Amino acid sequence: MKNRYLVGGPISPLLISELMTLGNDDPGAGAVSVFIGKVRDDKVNEQQVIALQYSAYDAMVEKEAEDIIKTVKSAFSDVRKVLIVHSTGEVSAGEASLFIMVTAGHRDHATRACRHTLEMVKERLPVWKKEIF
Amino acid sequence: MTAAVTVLFFGDAREVTGTEAEDFKAGDTTELRRQILERYPGLGQVSFRLALNRVLLKEDTGLKGNDIIAILPPFEGG
């Protein structure tokens, strides 16, 4: 991984399973909510997207992700852990490019905080994409 | 007073200028923006915000030596 929040290429099923073990050391976390964003095979001007090329402002991603995590934890008191991982480089249609995991004591804050984290990632993470046809 | 600063280009701004980073000399972001658009007129077609040392700017501000300014088109993550 390039830093705690960025990984080169797709977020593989193996990495996803490794990331999901990161909450296992906390028996007080009774709820885990996960969002996985994948590249869609959209058609743009009659051309089929086969992959996206992601680029990022690495140093600012780190700062913004840390700030998002801090904000989510202070807004949802039951939240215990927040993970954000985004791809850079090429990710093919059908592969994962974003992983968010929130652990909390109970389901309500886990699910709501996961959605809130996702919206903040879309709004604040300095990441760009370019379609590959 | 002018300051030597580094400008980083991202997303469509990088596509349009064909450059990732370039040095400029300017006293504030108003002057810097003018110089950048003069050197790369194509950027006039790109919507972007500026970040100063990794912090998004809400208004124009003064610059000091070694500041890092980033040209940030709308984010497209997720």
Question: What would your notes on this structure say?
Answer:
- The complex is a heterodimer of chains A (133) and B (78).
- Chain A is α+β, with helices and mostly antiparallel strands and 133 residues long.
- Chain A has helices at residues 13-20, 58-75, 107-124, and strands at residues 6-8, 31-38, 43-44, 47-48, 51-56, 79-92, 96-104, 127-132.
- Chain B is 23% helix and 31% strand.
- Chain B has a five-stranded mixed β-sheet with strand order 2-1-5-3-4.
- In chain B, 27% of the residues are buried.
- The A-B interface holds A 37, 54-57, 59-60, 63, 86, 97-98, 118, 121-130 and B 8, 10-12, 14-15, 51, 54-55, 70, 72-73, 75-78.
Give a short summary of the structure.
The complex is a heterodimer of chains A (about 130) and B (about 80). Chain A is α+β, with helices and mostly antiparallel strands. Chain A contains 3 helices and 8 strands.
Defining traits:
heterodimer, A: 133 residues, alpha+beta, Aldehyde Oxidoreductase, domain 3, 6-stranded mixed beta sheet, two-stranded antiparallel sheet, 8 strands, elongated, B: 78 residues, Ubiquitin-like (UB roll), 5-stranded mixed beta sheet, globular
Q: Write the H/E string of chain A, N to C.
A: EHEEEEHEEHE
CATH topology of chain A: Aldehyde Oxidoreductase, domain 3
Radius of gyration of chain A, in Å, reads 15 Å
Please report which band the strand proportion of chain B falls in: under 5%, 5-15%, 15-25%, 25-35%, 35-45% or over 45%: 25-35%
Uncertain segments of chain B are: none
Task: Return the CATH architecture of chain A.
Answer: Alpha-Beta Complex
Count of alpha/pi helices of chain B? 2
The CATH class designation of chain B is Alpha Beta
> How can the largest sheet of chain B be summarized?
5 strands, mixed
State mean pLDDT of chain A (0 to 100 scale): 96
- In oligomeric terms, what are we looking at? heterodimer
- What's the order of the H and E elements of chain B? EHEHEEE
Annotated CATH homologous superfamily of chain A: Molybdopterin biosynthesis MoaE subunit
CATH superfamily label of chain B: Beta-grasp domain
Helical run tally of chain A: 3
Instruction: Please mark out the parts of chain A with pLDDT under 50 across 5 or more consecutive residues, or reply none.
Output: none
Summarize the amount of helix of chain B as a percent range: 10-25%
